[in-house]
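Readers of this paper often ask what the protein records in our data store actually look like. This encoding replaces a full spatial description with a residue-level series of whole-number codes. For reference, a complete record is included directly beneath this paragraph.
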Amino acid sequence: MRKLLTLCGVLIAAALSDAHADQSTPPNIVLILADDLGWNDVGYHGSEVATPNMDLLANEGVTLKRFYVQPTCSPTRASLMTGQAAIKLGVVQPMSKINPAGLPLEYPLLPQLLKEKDYQTALVGKWHLGYRQQAYGPRARGFDHFYGHLTGGIGYWDHVHGGGLDWQRNGKTRREEGYSTHLLADEAIRVIKSRERSKPLFLYASFNAPHLPNEAPEESVEQYAHLPDPRRRIHAAMVTELDTAIGRIVASLEKEGILDNTLIWFMSDNGGLNPSSYSDNTVAIAETIDDWFAPGEAPLTVLEFLRVNVLEGAADNTPLRKGKQSIYEGGVRVPSFVYWRGKLSANEISGMMTVEDVTPTLLTIAQTTHTEDQFDGKNRWNDLQSARTDPTTEESGYVVKSTEGEAIYLYPWKLLRLSSGEIELYDIETDPTESTNLTQNHPEKAFAMQQKLDAVERGESIHVPIYRAVFNMDFFGGEEIYPPWAEQVEP
């Protein structure tokens, strides 16, 4: 009996020791970012686009029904990496390739903060937060390993942005054949396989898909031959290629035996791009250019850039209003889910969450010693665990900004102050399509929200004047007329 009791004691102690080890060992974190993915571009939202891997993760994980970002890429990425408001950071539009600065250096980034728990860190894909000076690049901001591109959209096959090759591994230009989504998935798998097994891994898989240009393997496009719009066919194919890449990453985690100890957070950086993103006048101008000139033959590059960006986008944000670059819901409410097998139960969260919440939440999961007041975002780990389904009534004061104007959320209220000076007020809980302007019905609420918007902390813009960017457009793919961007980084 004594031996039996002793054995039981040993087994109980071992079990308690294992449980404590599980609690004290931070998980691996895989953060997956899509580029310009529309609300109705994923199967689990009812899309005709095949996304079986994302559907599985979303349905078996925690689906975030009201996840908000910024209307364009760089501002979202700035908030994602810092947990701070983009408007406070001074990052309020996509960074031009000629931009000398980048994400302000005084703010520590997520990979730097994860170093407290000895994470190994890797970025595979798009950076777009500054690169002209070495101090602004990903390797100087906490990433041990970087493979991908520094600027915005690139050609999927030629890896060119704005006249220069933008493809590298750890500062060294790479001239590689292959479709970028395939290459990025290959690299993510290499990172997973070659990781140091004694340390947790933070992998930021920042895909450029399905951002323009519309390019996909022919066999993928053929899957969508039944769709009447040829641009939508290619866009759908790009999304399916992205889904396949995500499936490969998850399969690699499973094969390595670490999927159960890996949290996966997926999101898009902004709403999908299509002509509804723009005003009727802008669309009319683009259509005139398209009528007068064959693709690539407009006399000014800015005209060709306008035509492509206004007319080529084929994302679907149904039923939300507008899309990328817009402060309406279609530009800022995006697909997102969190998956952690065995740790998070399948559920949906209807409450509002934002990209500012990601860093404080992940740092909590990683058990770092950060404090809540370091960030504009909030730790949402308890919400993810409990899968709170009721819409939050917290007055978050979340602000989105673009050339179209500014908007502030005091959920369920949303106030828009357009660049024209017009004010619009919506109850997005009952009116998610923003069809009924309630400014006249609730003038006191509109006035109070304008005051709160006026009081928001605003940082100095880090962007070059728009006229400078116009004379050196950030084309996606095409002829190389400059040295590779990795070779133009200053010490």
Observations:
- Confidence is low (pLDDT under 50) at residues 1-22.
- The chain is about 30% helix and 15% strand.
